[in-house]
Design a protein that fits this description.
The chain contains 3 helices and no strands. By secondary structure, the chain is mainly α. α1 (2-11) packs antiparallel against α2 (22-53).
């Protein structure tokens, strides 16, 4: 989320769009893109691991209802 926020706020949003030398902007753009890509690639395995390590009671319908309240 942070990488996507950096890319949006500093390169797409008209009120805060950065302008100037390309070299520092390229560094910020690459940093934001790297964070967004890294987070997007790491999220599915982390979610699967979290689902795999949940206790059985957390996967029940009662646990789901309790979390929704």
């Amino acid at each position: 989320m942070t990488g996507a926020s950096v890319l949006y706020f500093y390169f797409r949003w008209n009120e805060r769009k950065l302008e100037g030398e390309e070299r520092p902007l390229a560094l910020l753009r690459n940093l934001g893109a790297g964070m967004a890509l890294g987070g997007g690639l790491l999220l599915p395995p982390i979610l699967l691991w979290d689902l795999y390590t949940l206790p059985f009671q957390a996967l029940s319908g009662r646990g789901f209802n309790l979390a929704g309240e």
